[in-house]
Amino acid sequence: MNNLIYKSCVLLLTLLVMPSESFASSWTCHYAELTRNVVIFYPNEPARLPCKVYYTKPDENVMPRTLWNAENDDTYCERKAIDFIKTLEARGWQCSSDNDQ
After folding, report:
1. Distant-in-sequence, close-in-space partners of 60: CB < 8 Å, separation ≥ 6
2. Rounded CA gap, 55 and 83, in Å?
C-alpha cells in the first residue's frame, strides 16, 4: 500500500513538472547518481498566488514533500526555491533550470 501511495505522489509531481497552464519554475539537481527536483507550482497561473514549492527525490523511495507555500506574498515561493537551489549548489549539487531546456 505504501508503494502505491509513493508511486501516486511521484506521478502527481511528474505531472507538475510537465509544461502546462499551471506550471511555473522547476530545477533538476544532480550529485553523483542522485537526482533532486524542485518545483514551484502556481495552480491559478498566471496568478502568482497561491503557490507551493515541492521537493522530490525521484530515484529514492522517499515521499515528495511540500517545502513552502504561500497565499499572501507573491514572491515568497520563488525566493525560497532559489535560496534552496543555492544551498544545494553550495553542497556540491549541479542544478539547472528545466525552463531553459
Report:
1. 34
2. 13
